Each structure stands twice: as C-alpha cells, then as structure tokens.
Sequence to fold (213 residues):
Amino acid sequence: MLFEPYNLRGLPLRNHLVMAPMTRNRASVAHVPTPIMVDYYAARADIGLIITEGTSPAPDGLGYARIPGLFNAEHVKAWKAVTDAVHAHGGRIFVQLMHTGRASAAAHLPAGARTVGPMTEAMADSVYTDTDGMQPADVPHALAIAYTHARRMVREGHSPGVTPRTRGQSPRSPPHRIRRRSHRPCAPPVTATWTAVECQRSRASVAHPCAPS
Fold:
C-alpha cells in the first residue's frame, strides 16, 4: 500500500510517501536557490510528495544562513528551475513558507530588513552565522506576518502548494492566531494549470495548496 498511487483530493501522487521539510542551507548568500538544490530535489522526485526546506516569504524572514527566499522575481526564476526538474521526473512538490521570526541573526538579513517576531523578547538560544559562528539572537520588533505575496510567488514558480510556518512563536502571539485561522484553500487562482486540493494539516504546520482548478 505504501508504494501504491494516492489521490490527494484531486492531486495524484505516485505513492503514499511524503518527504518532510529539511533545512539544507544550500541557497546562495543572497538566499537564491542554487543548481545544487535543483539536483537535490530532482533526485527525490520518486517520493509521492516533496515538501521543501523552509523558505522565507519576506526579507525579514531570512534569519538563518543561506536559506532560500520566495518574494521576488529572482527567487521565482530559481525556484521554477527546481519545480520544473521535479515535474520532469513525474514528482510533486510543495513549498514550505517559513519565516524565521525571532530565531534570527541580523548578519543574514538584507539591507533594510529587521528581525521581527511575535514579541519584543530575544530568543534564549543562539543563532549560527557564517561570519561569526554562534551569536545571541537579536531582539525582535513585534510584528504580525502576512503570506499573501509569497503565495503569489509560489504560483508563479509552479509549485502546487505551500506550508507556512513561523519560528519562535508564542502560543498567545498574533502570528500564532494567524496560523490557526489559515487552514483554508488559498486565494482565488491566477492560472488554470493545477488541480484543486484541500488543505492538509500536520502537527508542525498547515499546508495551503495553491490550487487553481
């Protein structure tokens, strides 16, 4: 049964296997997906459904070293190379949107970005940086997080789904409430190339299939 085809509410998968998100830190220092990421995901296209590594939906969510982003045209072009390679091998791939929140180091953020989170208290744990090794986490600016723009970028990058997640959340924080409300289908479609699927919820995140029908 594990290796038999499965229909995920209209999205056909070649088997019941799902690859969980795993941070690989293989994007460029500018947080753009690289050719090695194309090879990495294409090599795993035999899995029924791939959920990518955490991918930031905004400049202020790039708090880890070399994690990919998905909020501008350069990101879309690079992610499209990944999704095209997976699709060419008959695979399916969802993008996990992950804002690093207060689990962040300013050394990784682009100019004009700032560390944000659900509260104005620094995380107790340290954060790795390429330049200075382990460093104390920054004191964040309290901010609610929106994923709408990144979802549109996901569609342009030809990934049929997205699983949003925010690091360093408090159970009483506004981002947490946004996450609890958000297990519903994505906004109205902009293309007609994907099959409609319903949202799938896991213990770690809420999957939002961007599913034009």
